[in-house]
Specification:
- The complex is a heterodimer.
- By secondary structure, chain A is of the alpha+beta class.
- Chain A is built from nine helices and 21 strands.
- Chain A folds into two domains: 2-225, P-loop containing nucleotide triphosphate hydrolases (Rossmann fold); 236-354, RNA polymerase II/Efflux pump adaptor protein, barrel-sandwich hybrid domain (OB fold (Dihydrolipoamide Acetyltransferase, E2P), Beta Barrel).
- Chain A is globular, with a radius of gyration of 23 Å.
- Chain A starts with a strand and ends with a strand.
- Chain B has twelve helices and no strands.
- Chain B has a single domain (42-259), classed as MetI-like (MetI-like fold, Orthogonal Bundle), CATH 1.10.3720.
- Classes of the chains: A alpha+beta, B mainly alpha.
- The interface between A and B is medium-sized, with 30 and 21 residues.
Chain lengths: 355, 264
Amino acid sequence: MLRVEAQTRLGALALDVALDVQPGECLALAGPSGAGKTSVLRVAAGLLRPERGLVEAGGETWLDTTRGVDVPPERRRCGYVFQEYALFPHLTAWQNVAYPLRGVPRRQRRERALGLLERFGMRELADARPRTLSGGERQRVALARVLAREPGVLLLDEPLSALDARTRAGAARELASVLRQVETPALLVTHDFAEAAQLGDRVGVIDSGRVIQEGTPSELAAAPRSAFVADFTGAVVLTGVARSGPNGLTHVELDGGGAVTSTDRGDGPVAVSVYPWEIAIEPAAAASPPGSTQNHVSAEVLSVTRIGNRVRLGLGGPQPLAAEITGVSADQLGLRAGAQVIASWKASATRLVAI
Amino acid sequence: MRPFPVLLALALATALSFLTLPVVAIFVDSSPAELIDSLGEPGALDALWLSLRTTAMALAIILLVGTPAAYLLATRSFRGKALVVTLVELPLVLPPAVAGIALLAAVGPSGILGGAVDAAGIELTLQTAGVVVALTFVASPFYIRQAMAAFAAVDRTLLDASRTLGASEARGFRRVMIPAALPGLAAGTALALGRALGEFGATLMFAGSFQGITQTVPLAIYDRFSTNFDSALALSAVLVGISAAILVSVKLVQGSEALGGAPG
């Protein structure tokens, strides 16, 4: 288990966080830039010493300012994946991976490094230097390198932001599978809620140095505790299994029941995302004739949150949903917690991302 | 023809001929055979050998002390750092004669540390060791300045990465920072080497000009330019050769760095 508590002043930012991450779990901290996300990772790794703080990992205390404990970064078993990966430019891919293998006899070092690169399909590029590698390849070398350290904790700083849009989806899938395989707690930070939702088992929304709300991605999207979280979470994320359907559309059986269609292509497990303002709400009783919307999901209103002239509805169904409608419509429909509604949206507003 | 490009070309032509003509003249003024002949003279070879030895020793000291010092200045911030940097750079702008006098006042026989140096059994003035001190004094700021810039230009997250991967700062310094800063360090070494090799004023004032003991190549050139101009010319030609070789090798190191990377 990883526990990070930190209270410190960083310029204009007052950082005050307390986080727990269980073994095998990935907690994604999502928030705008300047919210203090990276500082949390640096505190965990020992690269930043907070005024007051506590870092415990796997039963060891790495930092306890009340007892004067502060283990230096090189003796904290952290696998820190830096934002631009921080590969050593003068070393080849395998030498980068072998860098943490200090106690290992010289001969085995290369073998161990090659084995790790193999795991990421990078053995062929073992002798390449970082500058000749693509963004996705660099990410794989960086992951192999932190795994060579046999870390007790994984720390990932915006792991996908250095990648272009085309490689991002593939890299996200790979990273998700690494995160599923490792037994260690993982703490990931990102400014992108969709990325956090895809990679994190739990998401903590951080703003101005504080974690405002923590929960599963759909909990956050469905029941935001503040307007900031509602705004930040943006898209609703559902999971399901996709297959090609008729008319060139993709049919997705949602986990927990229900189905939606999308104009995006997809096959196998997918994350379905839709923006709450694309979702229209009708009372369940009104059996109106089908319009141009393809997707209809029955749900119960769980929460009604006003954000200015809009209303955010938290909806409970097979999977939590959120919809945003105008305050006027909400009043006309007389929506309150407990009301039964049908949430509808267009197949063309439904995005699919493979997971 | 537009006048401005012509003006630019003229300026470059003027600068180029002014800077290269004297150097070319050294080689035009005497035939290669003459050059080699006058190098055969014992004093000339002594001077060359002494210059190489003292420069090598001074460089070794500069690299050994200057590299960690430059690293500290580049990676830490502390009160009074600007003052420290200025003090380190001061010998850059000090006239060499002043440097010689300053060294005498500091570690000369009657200097403020003269007694201590004497008690330690070290003789500096009029000794080869004195030449090394003078070269180190005038050349080290060239290296430290360049090395500081080189270290400062290295991405700090590389050092953070090294530490989180289990390496102490000392190991990160050795295995990451120095290799990453290598082209800059090489350039600084070349600058210091060139400066040490050409050192004249401070050496003359502090160590004197004794053949085989303190008479380096520049002092030997000065010693014989009124009596044996050919020999002075020959020694000058050798210095030009060495300096050109240094410059070219630095360009090669930096060029290969830009193209394909430093040796692992």
